[in-house]
From TrEMBL:
This is SH3 domain-containing protein. Residues 1-27 form the signal peptide. It comes from the Bacteria. Keywords: Signal.
Length: 101
């Protein structure tokens, strides 16, 4: 019974801070970016932070995408209706700024 109580207490604490559903927590705290890869290409979204990871989606030139408000090296976590992954940060500009590339 003590184990069940401890697990239940952990779930009660973990759920509100987003430990159980990191995608949902990230979406609530995300930034909006404009995809600006070299024209006219789409920006690949990959399964991990690097070109060695498989593409899981793409964002069209000058389309907006939601993502985390920070980068992991040169990569930013992004998500859309049908994908979640990593995009090359230099090809992302904040929606109200010019892209930095």
């Amino acid at each position: 019974m003590r184990s069940f109580t401890r697990i239940l207490a952990l779930l009660v604490v973990a759920a509100p801070i987003g430990l159980l559903a990191p995608g949902a927590a990230a979406a609530a705290e995300g930034c909006v970016y404009v995809a600006a890869p070299p024209y006219p290409a789409n920006l690949w979204v990959r399964s991990g932070p690097g070109t060695q990871y498989e593409p899981v989606g793409s964002v069209g030139y000058e389309e907006t995408v939601e993502g985390s408000c920070g980068s992991r090296g040169s990569w930013t976590r992004v998500w859309g209706e049908d994908f979640e992954g990593w995009a090359y940060a230099p090809y992302l500009g904040e929606a109200d700024e010019d892209p930095d590339y």
